[in-house]
Amino acid sequence: MSIETPALGTANEFIARHIGPREGDIKAMLQLLGHEDIEALTANVIPDSIKGTSVLDLPAGQGEAEALAAIKAIAAKNQLFKSYIGQGYYPCHTPSPILRNLLENPAWYTAYTPYQPEISQGRLEALLNFQTLVSDLAGLPVANASLLDEGTAAAEAMTFCKRLAKNKASQAFFASQHCHPQTLDVLRTRAEPLGIEVVIGDERELSDASAYFGALLQYPAANGDVFDYRALVERFHAAGALVAVAADLLALTLLTPPGEFGADVALGSAQRFGVPLGFGGPHAAYFATRDSFKRDMPGRLVGVSIDRHGQPALRLAMQTREQHIRREKATSNICTAQVLLANIASMYAVYHGPQGLTRIANRVHQLTAILAEGLSQLGVTVEQAHFFDTLTLATGARTLDLHAAARAQRLNLREVDAVRLGLSLDETTTQADVEQLWALFADGQALPAFADLAATVASRLPAALLRQSAILAHPVFNRYHSETELMRYLRKLADKDLALDRSMIPLGSCTMKLNAASEMIPVTWAEFGALHPFAPAEQSRGYAELTTELEAMLCQATGYDAVSLQPNAGSQGEYAGLLAIRAYHQSRGDDQRDICLIPQSAHGTNPATAAMVGMRVVVTACDARGNVDIADLKAKAEEHQERLAALMITYPSTHGVFEEGIREICEIIHANGGQVYIDGANMNAMVGLCAPGQFGGDVSHLNLHKTFCIPHGGGGPGVGPIGVKAHLAPFLPGHAQMARKEGAVSAAPFGSASILPITWMYIRMMGGDGLRRATQLAILNANYIARRLEEHYPVLYTGSNGLVAHECILDLRPLKETSGISVDDVAKRLIDYGFHAPTMSFPVPGTLMIEPTESESKEELDRFCDAMIRIREEIRAVEAGELDKDDNPLKNAPHTAHELVGEWTHRYSRELAVYPTASLVDGKYWPPVGRVDNVYGDRNLVCACPSIEAYQDA
Ligand SMILES: Cc1ncc(COP(=O)(O)O)c(C=O)c1O
């Protein structure tokens, strides 16, 4: 049954834009599956025990133009004051060519995490630039390709220090009172379950460094001071402690970098490198460390390796720590990071280059020095002798009035306390701004003459800490300074990659669906982009309306009673969810409940998260059909009855099946005193059909970057909100800016707020019927693929009705036996056919997990199935000896254009190599490198841009 659009309106019009298959296609697909209609199919897939649990009751979908007008009206309720609040968030200019060619370009934002390096060389290069940028500025040799925000990066640094410091006896971590307050809040949240004591104090008064395993310092300090930490770092080192420094990247262009004064870790936010404030996120955090610690780094690391032809090629290094996190050793749960934002920062540095960045930093500093001097002349007490861009002013009894006067002129100053306030300048500050600030404080006095001060003020950076080492000497930061060059560089990199704008990305568990342009448009509106996260509440009424509405929409989609939008990735949602469970048990005096049952098939983040909240993981078995072994689960729940805290279970399962026993499973856990965490990564199979909050879940996270259309950005951003039943609502994450102050899991109250409009737009345009329809089509598309491919590759798991949920797993292990062809070979051969491979070897080694999503048309599904069937024929030819078992198009895949021009020595034709189907002639994707050597890359770990000499050799 199709959903009608009224003749004189646009209601529900968007649904057919979002959904791939047309009505006629749907009929044909259903016919193949032997089902009358889509209702019959989905009724057959959803187990009876949970059927009808959906509480989704939203109005019809709004047309694109109307929805954009509605969100514009919401956006208009945000008021854009000029922000001098600072505290880790600074206005900046996103260079227009980066805005247009990267941030707003689907070639960049619709890409997936670069697990398949051959089709990801462009974004890998951009990320390697980011790592080089960070490593250079921080003065530490190894940097990762982003963490989620400065607060969580600091928390990662704390546990990193705990693992690696020599002082094993200590459980205490020193955090300077000069750190940003939101960072201290996240530290407190993360430390408590691990039994770590965070001691917040003034490092200048530190008496005994040996009490600590590690320390966190802020550079420059949150109040603006630039302290010399050299002696302090030595004291910590002498006591066997490690030191992490949260540092401002722009300031580091002028100041001695943390690595040069002995820091073991540098971390922080790259926001002010061209990323909009966005009411707190998303922004890329960075993390850099010493060479000897590189294998312990959290997050993803891009490394240099070689391809099959011995040519340099990039890849994610040490990937096995991710999807395959070894449960008992997991130390961090970070998965989705902030790739798109890291790439913006990377390109900001590429565009400005070392001189440009230094010029910006100098300008910000000089304007701050001029401002300070003028304020002093006006009789205002500036507390800092040395500073970079931030001042704390002792304003005494005038403080409240000054804030009020500032607001009357649409300016926000930092609220420090009753007698002091703060000011941070930034890249956007001008002479007129400085004069406006002087006028605010002048109290009727004549203003200083800007030109006179500009000619006379000296630098207020401490002479002993002026940076001596050069920055960004690498050619990549010195080549692309004209807009023409940058535009072409971005195009060149994008052309190397395969994103959703070229072909389907059938990654199981990742839900790579359409990220519609109308959903994306509000993201770069200033009304959403230019708001500081700590702006007064009356200025963010638009955000308040948006988030309140979105929370209600997500409650309906999941059947939960309350939602927190704060977690900024699925992993963080898991963390917030388990924290809520833990706090609930504690509130009932059940402090001993610390066991988390997790089925064997779980995603790696689940056990990692359980470890982070101090829970002990007990793994439960799966049966031969991939379902939770209920008898084993029951036995373990009963065995640990006294200490059972939670079950973490993914539904539908990571095996792509709606397990029929889910209600019974939830009941067993509840009967034994535990809470049920339903991992909602697979929510795309449920919206509008069944609701985890109604069939036994107590809490779930959603990946808005899967089910709810936030693009994956090449590996982030993401949003991982959690829904909870009412009894857990009091334990949702709090924030200093919210009613509940404790339990912040992100630095900003709404995590990655500026991308929430994407999900709002999606839900608004799809409406209740459209969302339900999307789920049905996701199930149809997956079953269609499973049916078309099952005679060629066995489908590993199905429900009792022979159907799958929204994804299916193909078992390639038997082929390895008969032909020597591995799952890797098939994945790489798909590149020759123009496809991104499905998820490889998760959750079962030697398999491919395919999730087409509802957005792919029948034509695209057929193109993919045809490619898979042709590949099976090629494997058959290997089995039959018609193709050589070693020198065949599968083992040598993917084939580059460059290979074709040399002497062709293979035992198969060039045509078979690169044009295995005639249709490819019309639109061929050429991978820029051959198969990348993973082992070489991990053995010879190089995680910054190759040296200048290497470029000269090339
Ligand atoms: C089942 C499952 N749970 C959790 C996650 C973690 O989500 P994120 O990558 O947003 O941290 C994923 C991500 O792929 C997943 O597939």
TrEMBL record:
The glycine cleavage system is composed of four proteins: P, T, L and H. It comes from the Bacteria. This is Glycine dehydrogenase (decarboxylating). Gene3D superfamilies: Aspartate Aminotransferase, domain 1, Type I PLP-dependent aspartate aminotransferase-like (Major domain). GO terms for molecular function: glycine binding; glycine dehydrogenase (decarboxylating) activity; pyridoxal phosphate binding. Transmembrane segments: none annotated. It is an enzyme of class 1 (oxidoreductase). InterPro entries: GcvP, GDC-P_C, GDC-P_N, GDC_P, PyrdxlP-dep_Trfase, PyrdxlP-dep_Trfase_major, PyrdxlP-dep_Trfase_small. The keyword Oxidoreductase applies. The modification N6-(pyridoxal phosphate)lysine is found at K706. GO terms for biological process: glycine decarboxylation via glycine cleavage system. The glycine cleavage system catalyzes the degradation of glycine. The P protein binds the alpha-amino group of glycine through its pyridoxal phosphate cofactor; CO(2) is released and the remaining methylamine moiety is then transferred to the lipoamide cofactor of the H protein. Belongs to the GcvP family. Keywords: Oxidoreductase, Pyridoxal phosphate. GO terms for cellular component: cytosol; glycine cleavage complex. Its EC number is 1.4.4.2. It catalyses: N(6)-[(R)-lipoyl]-L-lysyl-[glycine-cleavage complex H protein] + glycine + H(+) = N(6)-[(R)-S(8)-aminomethyldihydrolipoyl]-L-lysyl-[glycine-cleavage complex H protein] + CO2. NCBIfam families: gcvP, PRK04366.1. Residues 774-895 form the Glycine dehydrogenase C-terminal domain. Its cofactor is pyridoxal 5'-phosphate. Residues 17-441, 452-735 form the Glycine cleavage system P-protein N-terminal domain.
